[in-house]
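Per reviewer request, we include the raw input and output of the structure prediction for the construct analysed in the revised manuscript.
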Amino acid sequence: MRLTLTVLFTCLLLSNYIAKAQTDTTDLLKGVTNQSNEKQYVTAAFKSSRIINGHSMELIGKNVLDFRILHRFGYVNDGISNLFGLDEARMRMGFDYGITNNLTIGIGRSTLKKELDGFFKWRPIRQATGAGGSPVSVVWISGMTLNTLKWAVPDRKNYFSSRLGYYHEIIIGRKFSERFSLQLAPLLVHRNLIDTDINSNNTFALGIGSRLKVSKRMALVLDYHPVLAGEQFGTYDPLSIGIDIETGGHVFQLHFSNSEGMNEKEFVTNTTGEFWKGEIRFGFNLSRVFSLNRNR
């Protein structure tokens, strides 16, 4: 079932591009090519450094601080007794900072498991047109999580390392036109401590993310992470669908997802809702950027 969904989403995304290729391909080059064929970097493949849960191929600029708030509510299918999930909520608050235009670091804290997380994000290759340009962007991300909950069994010998998890990810993405962007992201999550012997310390997934611009300030986004190996017992592939809305310095996003966790370790290995059975959570992401460059 998971493989079928992966193939289905990939085919849908590619068919969307092919159908628009003849009319949209020139839009990407419009206004950026010139007579001298100078190298021009492609921008705004995604309007945020994250799609919904996962990272996007975009980075924030040098000396720019991105203050980000993420909310996930309860299951919509809980009905009116739980106000369709709005009576319960999880939150992650984070700060991302651009050291250079191609290097970002970030920290955050989630109310779920009172978990701290941090990451660095580096773009060695950036999509560009003209002489020496690359047809894709390549981004490397490594991060770590720290569970700060009290020990479930405090009387046994507990190790600090048991609280830690790690993830490593490579994003390969392309902005095909002014309307459509697509990225693929192989991802490895490692947890030092697992719940049961039937689970695995290592989980491999493939991130699939896309953006389809529908108006000047609005776009549809898809974020899907099918697990390819190291599947966890009782979990499902995280799938999220949302709408990006640009409002000046803000990017406001409304979405529906079966995932409760808001860092890679959590949403890849611990998504317990089955999207196709209606176990879906409404949520929103809010991003506000601040330029800390005194010369600007």
